[in-house]
Structure prediction request, 170 residues.
Amino acid sequence: MKRKTPRPATVSPPVPPPAPAPVPESLADTVRAIEERFAPIVAAVDRVARGSEAPAVRLEGAMEIIFGAHGQSDPDFSELLLTGWTRARHDKHHRLALAWQREQLRLALQEILQAGTASGAFRKDLDAGAVAAVILGAAEGCLLQAATQGGAVPPGEIVRTLLSLALSGA
Prediction:
């Protein structure tokens, strides 16, 4: 009688343990990161708004900065802002930080638009506050596209279109 030689047991390679879940940033770290990344953008737009150039030149410069930051920023910046917006629904620190940043940009744009209307460079019936809000909304739309892997949004055409809306009929 032939004896069967026992086969060696097949051993599967050990399954590596699951990767640890990413450690969430503290809320304070996210707020601080938003403020640090956004502060230079706000400062640059403010410098342009307070410049001595013609209102149309200042508006174009401010929009190029804003759209460049929102539409052509690195994915980390886009994700940081989107995370901030999501957390802002439930955290007042995020809400206040983002609202302050956005309001600074809106006020700078509004200041330029008001100066342009007063000087006759922009349409007389222009609602500076509403147009400033529309400009920011368009920039934020670019940010969403960039952050959701839609790719960078070149600001040139958008800036020209928004500028022509302010100038038409002036």
